[in-house]
Amino acid sequence: MSLFPWLGDKEDEKETDEEVNPHMKNCMNPALWNAAPIIDWDKFYAGDPDSKVPKEYDPPQRYGVGPLMVSMPLQSPKYDPLDYYFVADDSKLTPEEVASAGKPNSAKISEDLLQQLLGPSPDSSVIPEPFRNALFWLEDNHFAEEFVSFNKWAWRPASEKNDRAVALGSMKYDWTNDASKLGLGYANFQKTYLTIQESPCKKYYKLTDVKTILGKPTNGKWLTFYVIQEGDEIRDRNGALMDVQPGDLMRMTYGEGDDPYDCAPANIVFSYLVRKIAVLDEETGEVTTVSPCYEQCLTKVKTPMPKGLENTALLSMKERFDMSRATVCDSQLYFPSPDPPTGDAIENL
């Protein structure tokens, strides 16, 4: 019997790969691949996005800007508000809560979590360089999400006309949540599939969530990844030069997320850095950390909870955001991804 019942019994030869691997089944679904409208990249370039990439990094969610504003932390009569952001020890979530979660595995950043998350792709040659064999830290994402690997998404090359999605994957797999009450809540419903479209210049990637309703494909909100380029200088709100590296990503949502062509800096309502924290050597299978990102993350892991604070309700939005991102939960909930189909298998979906 499999350690993961949802994968089925490997000894049952009557079951197909698609039956025992729902990720494979979804990644072979043409309706999901074709749910989102195709980006007209000439129209996107007409907005001169290169000149509008923020050179000052100051997440707007820190100020409660736009529709993605949240009351931090989320209030509930059941939990002490601090439970949503801070985990002093593993007792915040019981083993039973972890085992029954949508992501039923837990490991620590300070131990072997990174090795658990970054597995080999069955077809890495079709994965664009920024995403290939990489694990990312979602710095300043205050929605109790910390790490993601796109290595086991389903990937295929862009067409000559860049008129199709190049990747399909799910937030359920290789996408971690803090082992906190808030993280548990997200882990229990993050089953969304997303597609990725690649710009001809390979500096911009557009992601959107996709699904089928009554058999008809549909997409949700758009978000943008900008790939940090050699020579880019990104400064923090105090004017200090940040040590982001070429190949790191800046994730941005514009307005309500309805317009994939919006690139106006004034319309950014949510952003954070997607920083490469570990890489996989395909030949040896070894996962190594990336400096200084890994050390900076560990510093936050080791930062203790604030003392004497019992409720965050009296803090301003900025104070709550800064406090929530001053520490990183060491224990993370995750679900290792099964293998996706190869690029050849999905070439014509």
Quick description:
The protein has 349 residues and is α+β, with helices and mostly antiparallel strands. The chain has nine helices and 15 strands.
Which consecutive residue ranges, at least 5 long each, have pLDDT under 50?
A: 1-18, 70-79
> What percentage of the residues does DSSP assign to strands (E)?
15-25%
CA radius of gyration: 20 Å
Mean pLDDT across the residues is 86
What does this protein look like?
- The chain is of the alpha+beta class.
- The chain has one domain.
- 16% of the residues lie in helices and 24% in strands.
- The protein is built from nine helices and 15 strands.
- Strands 2, 3, 4, 5, 6, 7, 8, 9, 10, 12, 13, 14 and 15 form a 13-stranded antiparallel sheet that branches. The protein has a two-stranded parallel ribbon with strand order 1-11.
- Strand 3 and strand 4 (145-149) form a beta hairpin.
- It is globular and about 60 Å long.
- Mean pLDDT is 86; it is low at 1-18 and 70-79.
